[in-house]
C-alpha cells in the first residue's frame, strides 16, 4: 500500500492539503469549554412556601410531589429535604437517561400536581443540573455612595442582564442581591380603634381600589370598546386617598387611618463585595460557545459599562477560564519543547537537519487533522480532551522517530531512496499498529465507568484515539512521502557511519549488555525481585483525587445555627471580613440566594464567603486566625473552611455524606420526637458521628390556640389565624402590575416583640367587643427539628458516621435499630466509591486481556505477549520511586501519567520483540547456525538496531517534560505529578526495554526450545 501511495505523490499531497483545509475550518467551529457538556443525571424540584414550617412543607407539599414523581422513567434515587419556607426534592436518574425527556416529564407531572398543592403556593421550580450550569465568571455590581440600591437592581435586571445576554455564547445570566421596591401600608391602630375599624376594612379598601375588569367591553353603535377602571392605584398618594368605610357608616380617606409609602422589601439575603453591599451577576456559557472568545467579550462589555454607568463600580471575579488557559498553555508547551528537543536529539543521533524538518511538518499536521475527529464525534475542546491530546503527542513523536530512523537505517544499508521509504515504513507497520491498539486497549474500556467519570474518560479516549490514529496515517503515508520528496532534491550521497555521540553510547550499551548476559540468570532474578518491592512502594504514597495545586483562594461555608435575621447574618460576615487582612478580593452570598440555578439549601442563617489572597502563605495565615475567631466567638456555628472549589471540585463533589445511617420509625410516618430520640442516641454504637439533617435542631416559638376561650367568646378560629398571619407574616394586600413590573402592596409588619404585639393587638368578637389577641394564644420556646428529610420510602432520620471502616459495625447498627422498632439502611459516597473501585479493577482486567490478545495476534505466540506484560510493573516501579522521592501523591494526574508512560514502554517492548523475531527468521536461513546461536545473535543485533529509537523516544519525552517541573502556576501544579510518573517510568522503562526484554525473550525462547527437543 505504501508503495502504491508513494508512486502517486501529487494525489497524496493534495489529499493531505484537503484534510488540512477541512480541519482548519472545523477547528474554528469546535466549541471551547472548560469541561465537556455532561448531563449530570439529577433534577432538583425547589419549593418556596413563605411562613411555612418544615413539617408543614413536608406534609402539604413534598409528600405529594414525591408520590407524584415516583413513577418517573429511569429514577434511581429520590431525596427530599424540608426546611423553614424552603423545600427541595432531588431526583437522581440512571446514568444514560435522556435528561431532556426526563426534564419535560418532571414538569408535566408537576403541572398535574398543581391542583393538589396549597393554592397560595408558587409553582415549584424544576432545575436541571448540567456542567454548563457552572458559571464561567461573576460580575460584581457595586453602587457608589448615595446611590439608591433599588435603582441599581433595576439597572442590573433590565439593562445589564440583557446586554450581557446579547454577547455571543452566553446562555444564561443569573443575579443575586437584588433589592425590590414595595408600597407598605402601616395601620394606625389608635385611629382605627377610635373609628371602630379593623385592619380588614383597610385591606378591603386597598383591594377594591386596585381592582380590574378583565375582558369586559361595551358596544357603541358599530364600535366596541374595552373597559378599564380608572380607579386603579399607582402611587402611595393614590392609596392614601382611597375611601375607607367604618362599620358605623363613617367614610374617611385611608391616609387618616394608615400611612402608605415606598419602602425597600425586607431582604432575606445579601451579596457583599469586600465591605460593600451590591449585586453579583453570574454568566453561563452555551454548550457550543468558545470560552476563550466569550471572556474577552465580557471584559470589553464591562469597560463599556464603566463608561455608561459611572454611578456603579464593576469588577470581574472567579474567572474559570484560567483553568482552560492553563490546559491550552500546557499543550502549547508540550508541542514547543517536544519539537525543539526532538529536533536536537534527532540531530545529535542522526546528524541531518532534513529529518527534523520532516518531523516539524508532520507534528502540527497530525494535531490539526485530529480536530476533524473531534468534530465527527461531537467533542469540544476542553480540559479533558486537551489532556488526551497532550498524552497522544508523546506517542505521536515516538511513531515519527521510529519510522524516520528505520528509513534512514535502510538507506545506510545501501537501499535506494524510494525502496528505503517503502521498506522502512512497511517493516515497522505491524509493530506500530499493535502499540497503538494496546494503548487504546487501556483507554477505551475506561469509557464504560459509570457516572461522570466514564463520561469524562469518553472525551479523553476519543482524543487519544484521534491523535494516535492520525499519527499512524501520518507515519505510514505523509512521513515516507515527505522524506522521499525532501531527500531526492540535492545531493544523493548517503551519510555512512554514525554520529560520535551515538557510537559512544553504543559502546557503553554493548559492555553493559555483555556483562548482564554473562550473568543472565542472576540479572533476571534481580529484575523479578524488583517488581514486588517496587509495587510495594505504592503503599507508601498518599492518595488523593486531584493533585495539590497552589490555590490562593479560599471559601468559608457557615451555618450560624441561631435564629438570626438576614441583616444580623450580614453584619456578622462584615465583621469577619473586616478582621481578615491582606486579601485581594472578598465576596459573600449571605442568607437566601436569588440565583435561579441554585439547588442547595437556601437558609437565612447560612452564608458563603469567597476570599482571594496574593499567595498561599497569606491565605494559610489568615485562615488559621479566622478559624480561631469562629471557634471562640461563635461556638454554635458549624462551618467548612478551606480551598475554594474550582470547576472540577464542583463537578465531582457529592452532596451525599461519606457514610450515612438512616432509620425510619415503623410505628408512625413522622420523625421520632427529640425527647424520645435523645436517650436512644446515647446508646448509638458508633464512636465518632454527626447528626444528619433530620436530627439537627433549632430554637423556635410554638403558638397554641386556646379553643375553649375562642368558643366562649364566639371568635372564629380563622379570624385568629388571619390576624396572626397579618402580624407576623408577609401579608400582601394586592399587586400593582404595569408592563411586566410588579409592585407589591404589603401590610407593614410591626417591629415590636411578638409578646408585646400579642398583648396590644385587639381582636373583635361577633358583638364588636374587642379583646387582646394574647388571651387566645399561648406560646412557648422550644427546640424543634430544623429539617424533615425523606426518600422514596418515607421520612427518615440519620447519623453521618466518620470511620475508616464504617461497615464493620453494621450488625450492631441493625441490633440497635431493631430494639427500637426502627428500619435501618446505610447510604453514602462510601458505597459509590467501592462500586467505582470494583468497576475499575474489572475494566483494568479487561484492558490487560485485550492487550494480551492484540499482542498474541501480532507475535503469533501465546508466550511472547507475557514479556510485554511483565515490563509494565517495572515501569510502575520507576514511577512510584520518583513520585515518592519528589513528595508527590497518587492522584488522577499521576494515574494518567502512568497510563501514558506504559503506552510508550509497551511501544518500545513491542518493537524490540518484533525486531528479534524478524532477525531470527533472517538468520534461520544460515544453515551453519544452531537455534541457540540464532537466538543470541538476533537478541544482540536487535538491541543495537533498536537502541537509537528507544533512546531518542525516551530522551525527547523526558526532556520535553522537564520544563514543567520548574514552572509555576496552576497548569504546572496540575501537570507535575503526571511528569514525575512519566519521567520515573521511562527512566526504568528504558533500562527495561534495553535489558529486561532481551532477558525475558531469552528465558521464554529457551523454555520453548527445550520443550521442542523433548
From TrEMBL:
Domain of life where this protein originates: Bacteria
Membrane keyword on record: yes
Record-given protein name: Efflux RND transporter permease subunit
Alphabetized InterPro entries for the sequence: AcrB_DN_DC_subdom (IPR027463), Acrflvin-R (IPR001036)
Keywords: Membrane, Transmembrane, Transmembrane helix
Gene3D superfamilies in alphabetical order: Multidrug efflux transporter AcrB pore domain, Multidrug efflux transporter AcrB pore domain like, Multidrug efflux transporter AcrB TolC docking domain, DN and DC subdomains, Multidrug efflux transporter AcrB transmembrane domain
Keyword Transmembrane: yes
Amino acid at each position: 500500500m505504501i508503495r502504491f501511495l508513494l508512486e502517486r505523490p501529487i494525489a497524496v499531497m493534495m489529499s493531505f492539503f484537503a484534510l488540512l483545509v477541512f480541519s482548519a475550518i472545523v477547528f474554528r467551529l469546535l466549541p471551547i469549554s472548560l469541561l465537556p457538556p455532561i448531563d449530570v443525571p439529577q433534577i432538583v424540584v425547589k419549593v418556596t412556601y413563605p411562613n411555612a414550617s418544615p413539617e408543614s412543607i413536608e406534609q402539604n407539599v413534598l409528600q405529594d410531589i414525591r408520590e407524584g414523581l415516583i413513577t418517573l422513567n429511569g429514577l434511581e434515587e429520590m431525596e427530599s429535604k424540608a426546611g423553614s419556607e424552603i423545600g427541595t426534592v432531588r431526583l437522581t436518574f440512571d446514568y444514560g437517561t435522556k435528561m431532556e425527556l426526563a426534564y419535560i416529564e418532571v414538569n408535566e407531572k408537576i403541572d398535574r400536581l398543581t391542583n393538589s398543592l396549597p393554592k397560595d403556593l408558587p409553582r415549584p421550580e424544576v432545575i436541571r443540573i448540567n456542567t454548563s450550569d457552572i458559571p464561567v465568571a461573576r460580575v460584581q455590581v457595586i453602587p457608589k455612595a448615595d446611590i439608591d440600591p433599588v435603582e441599581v437592581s433595576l439597572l442590573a435586571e433590565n439593562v445589564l442582564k440583557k446586554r450581557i445576554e446579547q454577547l455571543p455564547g452566553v446562555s444564561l445570566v443569573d443575579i443575586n442581591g437584588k433589592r425590590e421596591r414595595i408600597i407598605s401600608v402601616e395601620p394606625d391602630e389608635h385611629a382605627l380603634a377610635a373609628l371602630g375599624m379593623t385592619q380588614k376594612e383597610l385591606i378591603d379598601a386597598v383591594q377594591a381600589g386596585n381592582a380590574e375588569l378583565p375582558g369586559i367591553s361595551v358596544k357603541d353603535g358599530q364600535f366596541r370598546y374595552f373597559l378599564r377602571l380608572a380607579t386603579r392605584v399607582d402611587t402611595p398618594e393614590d392609596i392614601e386617598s382611597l375611601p375607607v368605610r367604618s362599620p358605623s357608616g363613617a367614610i374617611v380617606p385611608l391616609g387618616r387611618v394608615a400611612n402608605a409609602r415606598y419602602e425597600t422589601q425586607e431582604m432575606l439575603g445579601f451579596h457583599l463585595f469586600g465591605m460593600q453591599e451590591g449585586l453579583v451577576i453570574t454568566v453561563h456559557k452555551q454548550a457550543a460557545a468558545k470560552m476563550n472568545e466569550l471572556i474577552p467579550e465580557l471584559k470589553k462589555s464591562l469597560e463599556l459599562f464603566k463608561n455608561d454607568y459611572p454611578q456603579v463600580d464593576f469588577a470581574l471575579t472567579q474567572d474559570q477560564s484560567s483553568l482552560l488557559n492553563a490546559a491550552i498553555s500546557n499543550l502549547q508547551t508540550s508541542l514547543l519543547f517536544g519539537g525543539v528537543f526532538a529536533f536536537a536529539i534527532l540531530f545529535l543521533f542522526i546528524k541531518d537537519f532534513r529529518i527534523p524538518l520532516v518531523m516539524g511538518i508532520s507534528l502540527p499536521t497530525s494535531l490539526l487533522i485530529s480536530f476533524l475527529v473531534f468534530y465527527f464525534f461531537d467533542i469540544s475542546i476542553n480540559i479533558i480532551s486537551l489532556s488526551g491530546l497532550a498524552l497522544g503527542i508523546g506517542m505521536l513523536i515516538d511513531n515519527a522517530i521510529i519510522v524516520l530512523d528505520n528509513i534512514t537505517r535502510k538507506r545506510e544499508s545501501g537501499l535506494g531512496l524510494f525502496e528505503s521509504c517503502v521498506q522502512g515504513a512497511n517493516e515497522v507497520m505491524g509493530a506500530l499498529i499493535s502499540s497503538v491498539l494496546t494503548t487504546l486497549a487501556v483507554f477505551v474500556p475506561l469509557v464504560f465507568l459509570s457516572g461522570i467519570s466514564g463520561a469524562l474518560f469518553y472525551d479523553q479516549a476519543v482524543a487519544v484515539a484521534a491523535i494516535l490514529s492520525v499519527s499512524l496515517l501520518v507515519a505510514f503515508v505523509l512521513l515516507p512521502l515527505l522524506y522521499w520528496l525532501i531527500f531526492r532534491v540535492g545531493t544523493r550521497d548517503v551519510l555512512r557511519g554514525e554520529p560520535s555521540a551515538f557510537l559512544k553510547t553504543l559502546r557503553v550499551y554493548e559492555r553493559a549488555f555483555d556483562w548482564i548476559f554473562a550473568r543472565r540468570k542472576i540479572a533476571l532474578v534481580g529484575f523479578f525481585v524488583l517488581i514486588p518491592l517496587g509495587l510495594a512502594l505504592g503503599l507508601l504514597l498518599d492518595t488523593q483525587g486531584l493533585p495539590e495545586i497552589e490555590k490562593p483562594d479560599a471559601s468559608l461555608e457557615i451555618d450560624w445555627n441561631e435564629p438570626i435575621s438576614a441583616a444580623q447574618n450580614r453584619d456578622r460576615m462584615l465583621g469577619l471580613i473586616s478582621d481578615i487582612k491582606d486579601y485581594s478580593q472578598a465576596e459573600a452570598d449571605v442568607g437566601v440566594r436569588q440565583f435561579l440555578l441554585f439547588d442547595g439549601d437556601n437558609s437565612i442563617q447560612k452564608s458563603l464567603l469567597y476570599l482571594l489572597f496574593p499567595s498561599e502563605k497569606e491565605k494559610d495565615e489568615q485562615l488559621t486566625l479566622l478559624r480561631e475567631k469562629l471557634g471562640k466567638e461563635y461556638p454554635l456555628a458549624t462551618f467548612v473552611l478551606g480551598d475554594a472549589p474550582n470547576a472540577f471540585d464542583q463537578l465531582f463533589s457529592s452532596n451525599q455524606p461519606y457514610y450515612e445511617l438512616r432509620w425510619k420509625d415503623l410505628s408512625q410516618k413522622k420523625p421520632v420526637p427529640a425527647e424520645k430520640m435523645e436517650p436512644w442516641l446515647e446508646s448509638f454504637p458508633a464512636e465518632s458521628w454527626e447528626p444528619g439533617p433530620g436530627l439537627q435542631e433549632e430554637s423556635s416559638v410554638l403558638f397554641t390556640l386556646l379553643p375553649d376561650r375562642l368558643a366562649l367568646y364566639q371568635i372564629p378560629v380563622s379570624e385568629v389565624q388571619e390576624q396572626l398571619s397579618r402580624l407576623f407574616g408577609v401579608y400582601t394586600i394586592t399587586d400593582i402590575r404595569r408592563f411586566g413590573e410588579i409592585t407589591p402592596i404589603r401590610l407593614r409588619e410591626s417591629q415590636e416583640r411578638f409578646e408585646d404585639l400579642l398583648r396590644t393587638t385587639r381582636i373583635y368578637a361577633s358583638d364588636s367587643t374587642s379583646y387582646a389577641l394574647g388571651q387566645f394564644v399561648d406560646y412557648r420556646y422550644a427546640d424543634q427539628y430544623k429539617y424533615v428529610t425523606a426518600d422514596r420510602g418515607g421520612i427518615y432520620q440519620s447519623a453521618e458516621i466518620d470511620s475508616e471502616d464504617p461497615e464493620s459495625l453494621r450488625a450492631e447498627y441493625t441490633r440497635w435499630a431493631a430494639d427500637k422498632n426502627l428500619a435501618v439502611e446505610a447510604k453514602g459516597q462510601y458505597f459509590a466509591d467501592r462500586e467505582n473501585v470494583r468497576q475499575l479493577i474489572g475494566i483494568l482486567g479487561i484492558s490487560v486481556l485485550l492487550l494480551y490478545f492484540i499482542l498474541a495476534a501480532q507475535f503469533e505466540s501465546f508466550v511472547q505477549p507475557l514479556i510485554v506484560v511483565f515490563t509494565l510493573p517495572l515501569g510502575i516501579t520507576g514511577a512510584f520511586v520518583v513520585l515518592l522521592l519528589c513528595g508527590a501523591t497518587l492522584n488522577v494526574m499521576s494515574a494518567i501519567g502512568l497510563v501514558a508512560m506504559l503506552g510508550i514502554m509497551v511501544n518500545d517492548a513491542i518493537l524490540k520483540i518484533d525486531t528479534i523475531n524478524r532477525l531470527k527468521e533472517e538468520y534461520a536461513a544460515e544453515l551453519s547456525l544452531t537455534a541457540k546461536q540464532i537466538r543470541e545473535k538476533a537478541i544482540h543485533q536487535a538491541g543495537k538496531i533498536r537502541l537509537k529509537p528507544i533512546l531518542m523516544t525516551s530522551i525527547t519525552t523526558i526532556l520535553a517534560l522537564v520544563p514543567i517541573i520548574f514552572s509555576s502556576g496552576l497548569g504546572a501544579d496540575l501537570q507535575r505529578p503526571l511528569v514525575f510518573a512519566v519521567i520515573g517510568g521511562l527512566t526504568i522503562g528504558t533500562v527495561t526495554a534495553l535489558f529486561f526484554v532481551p532477558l525475558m525473550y531469552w528465558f521464554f525462547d529457551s523454555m520453548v526450545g527445550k520443550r521442542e527437543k523433548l
